[in-house]
Amino acid sequence: MIAMLKFLGEQARSEQRRMNRLSVHIGAKQGEIAETILLPGDPLRAKHIAQTYMEDIVCYNEVRGMLGFTGTYRGKRVSVQGTGMGIPTTSIYANELIADYGVKTLIRVGTCGAMQEHVHVRDVILAQASCTDSSMNRHEFSGYDYSPIASFPLLQSAYEQGMAKGLKLHVGNVFSSDMFYRSDKSVVKKLMDYGVLGVEMETTALYTLAAKYGVKALTILTVSDHVLTGEETTAAERQTTFHDMMEVALETAISI
């Protein structure tokens, strides 16, 4: 009987904890997440961003280890939330952030592999649009393709911020792949022929959901490696270029 009472008590406390948060995968309460948010894939990078660039930070989420923080950058309230890798997890967090917490501006900050000769490691790509091998939009649109694109005000602001800082910027299409390890390379060659700048794994989901909910979204990517040459950046080089990208992302976040 005592064991049963303890079990029922824990179930009640678990249900209360669940009811105190607004979504399944994010533990924040109402008002704890800013309307503008940065979305790195790595939750530890979210922590690094918060501790390095933001003031007055508060951790609002530790569910499943996917850390989320809210703080201020140059006086404006901004949040940062890890999303994990790939379209499925990005879809979960973007959906809940927008639908459950009222986020209005989402900026993905991450890395990608370059797919064009004129795009070099350490360059920065602003994803104007995203193509994909994922079937997510075919399911959503009854077998038809949907072309998700960035928010132009965010894209324009990020471009102006990057040019002012003298960064090597590229604006264009990226490929959001469902597969990190791919046996058939023929599609990669075709994507290159069609001018796709880089490959990553999340942007299609972010842009599609932004369109669905009528909010703003942009992906800003540091080129960490090159599909054609095999060149890779070191950890130290990635950190330096990541800093440049983060400054562009944060300035863009507070400009809208």
Q: What does this protein structure show overall?
A:
The chain has about 260 residues and is of the alpha/beta class. The chain has a single domain (about 30-255), classed as Nucleoside phosphorylase domain (Rossmann fold, 3-Layer(aba) Sandwich), CATH 3.40.50.1580. About 40% of the residues lie in helices and about 25% in strands. The chain is built from eight helices and nine strands. Strands 5-8-7-6-9 form a five-stranded mixed barrel. Helix 3 (about 85-100) packs parallel to helix 7 and helix 5 packs across helix 8. The chain is globular and about 50 Å long. The model has no long low-confidence stretch (mean pLDDT about 90).
Report the order of strands and helices: HEHEEEHEEHHEHEHEH
Number of strands: 9
Average pLDDT metric = 91
Spans of at least 5 consecutive residues with low confidence: none
- Which strand order do you get reading across the main beta sheet? 5-8-7-6-9
Q: Just name the CATH architecture.
A: 3-Layer(aba) Sandwich
Supply the number of structural domains.
Answer: 1
CATH topology: Rossmann fold
**Radius of gyration in whole Å, from Cα?**
19 Å
Largest sheet: 5 strands, mixed, barrel
Q: What's the N-to-C terminus distance?
A: 59 Å
- SS strand fraction: 25-35%
| Structural class by sheet pairing and helices | alpha/beta
The proportion of residues forming helix, as a percent range, comes to 40-55%
